[in-house]
Specification:
By secondary structure, the protein is α/β, with parallel strands linked by helices. It has three domains: about 160 residues, Adenylosuccinate Synthetase, Chain A, domain 1, CATH 3.40.440.10; about 90 residues, Orthogonal Bundle (Adenylosuccinate Synthetase, subunit A, domain 2), CATH 1.10.300; about 160 residues, Adenylosuccinate Synthetase, subunit A, domain 3 (Adenylosuccinate Synthetase, Chain A, domain 3, Alpha-Beta Complex). The protein is about 30% helix and about 20% strand. Strands 9-7-5-2-10-1-11-15-19-20 form a ten-stranded mixed β-sheet, sandwiched between helices. Strands 14, 16, 17 and 18 form a four-stranded mixed β-sheet that branches. A two-stranded antiparallel ribbon has the order 3-4. Helix 3 crosses helix 4 and helix 5 packs across helix 6. The two termini are about 25 Å apart.
Length: about 425
């Protein structure tokens, strides 16, 4: 019995989808354990590009079981669209290769309305930069014990009662605080059941399924959404997501014991990016930041928003390594840095007047830190044609070794492009 984990080691968008797609060949089961439809995973296979928001990346492989755990908040309309979209492209998706936890919480229309209205009501720097997909409000309902779960969709009495109870408060807020139209419980339930009907064949007790598969010796890979620095507990609060992309989310979002987890891979870009608002100590000025953005195609898979770009923050990366007990680092997009003659990495912060290597996880406090940089020599040559680690130039290898020495974690794979064959074993 063994399970491994792939999680994002930055603020998301590190290239997890491609890596999970590659790794899926070695596993029997791929599990998405947290987050919602606000996360976009992009996988490129030949000339085909696949963008998935809720489906585990393993669905692109035959004879793999894919599981959406109960730690996920489920946008049923989005998931049905994903499934049907991939089926039209010839990808086989059925209960034979996809199961959804019966206890997954559902994102409903009032969650999205409140999410958007709440963000719009905030001013300037107080905005979080939410995608407006209803993720935070859905998790809120889950934790105050009024959430609707997938299993509730098939009990008409329970479903209507829960939605009516929710709308007593939600409609008051929508009308009186946000100036929005009220929703009718019967109509919300009717629309939700339309999508639930299509998902019913996939619903299962995934806790039991997953642990039974592990007992049979199946290899399981856990796939996180977003990144560790967006973790609700350990990220740059309040500029974070509403779940735990970190290692703890694997256990609480799937029901698998920590004793079964072996490898924990953290994916990081060779530079830093962030979408939306929030502190970003190593963010570059618009000229150089834009240059890296264009070279790296740094636009959100879910929203299309331009990503902010900056130098690699090793203070933050080391924090993520220690927090999650990373066994390996997977370094992506090192090819993008080929456009630069010199490359900087952040090795310390100046925080409250002193130099430190301790990460500052409070979002407001992190705005006050000043990065201290180490300059490294660039390589100035195209890396995209490299197919072995030995093909990389000396300066690129030196950059990788600097990351290893600082974090104390081995960089075991390096990505030099979007294709499957552009991932090099170090």
């Amino acid at each position: 019995m063994s399970a491994d984990v792939i999680l994002g080691a930055q603020w998301g968008d590190e290239g997890k989808g491609k890596i999970v797609d590659l790794f899926s060949e070695q596993y029997d089961v791929i599990v998405r354990y947290q987050g919602g439809a606000n996360a976009g995973h992009t996988v490129i296979v030949g000339k085909d590009k696949y963008v998935m928001h809720l489906l585990p990346s393993g669905v692109l492989h035959k004879n793999k079981m894919n599981i959406i755990g109960h730690g996920v908040v489920l946008d049923m309309e989005s998931l049905v669209g994903e499934i049907e979209g991939l089926q039209k492209r010839g990808i086989s998706i059925s209960p034979r290769n996809l199961l959804i936890s019966e206890n997954a919480s559902i994102v409903l229309p009032y969650h999205k309305l409140i999410d958007k209205a709440k963000e719009e009501k905030k001013k300037g720097g107080k905005k979080i930069g939410t995608t407006g997909r209803g993720i935070g409000p859905a998790y809120t309902d889950k934790y105050v014990r009024i959430g609707v779960r997938l299993r509730d969709m098939f009990n008409n009495e329970t479903l209507l009662a829960k939605i009516e109870e929710n709308l007593e408060e939600k409609n008051f807020l929508l009308k009186n605080f946000y100036g929005q139209k009220e929703l009718a419980a019967a109509q919300v339930a009717k629309e939700a059941k339309k999508f639930a009907k299509k998902l019913k064949p996939y619903m299962a007790n995934t806790l039991s399924v997953l642990n039974n598969l592990l007992k049979k010796g199946k290899k399981v890979l856990f796939e996180g959404a977003q990144g560790a620095l967006l973790d609700i507990d350990f990220g740059t609060y309040p500029y974070v997501t509403s779940s735990n992309p970190t290692i703890g989310g694997v256990m609480t979002g799937s029901g698998v014991s920590h004793r079964l987890i072996k490898k924990v891979w953290g994916i990081t870009k060779a530079y830093q990016t962030r979408v939306g608002n929030g502190p970003f100590p190593t963010e570059l000025d618009e000229e150089l930041g834009s240059k890296i953005r264009e070279a790296g195609g740094e636009y959100g898979a879910t929203t299309g928003r331009a990503r902010r770009c900056g130098w690699l923050d090793l203070v933050a990366l080391k924090y993520v390594c220690e927090l999650n007990g990373l066994s390996d680092i997977l370094l992506t997009k090192i090819d993008v840095l080929s456009i630069l003659k010199d490359i900087k990495v952040c090795t310390h912060y100046i925080y409250k007047g002193r130099k430190t290597q301790d990460f500052v996880s409070d979002g407001e406090e992190l705005y006050t830190v000043k990065p201290v940089y180490k300059s490294l020599k660039g390589w100035g040559s195209d890396l995209t044609k490299a197919r072995k680690y030995s093909d990389l130039p000396k300066a690129a290898k030196a950059y990788i070794k600097f990351i290893e020495d600082y974090t104390g974690v081995k960089v075991s794979m390096v990505s030099v492009g979007p294709e499957r064959d552009q991932i090099l074993k170090a």
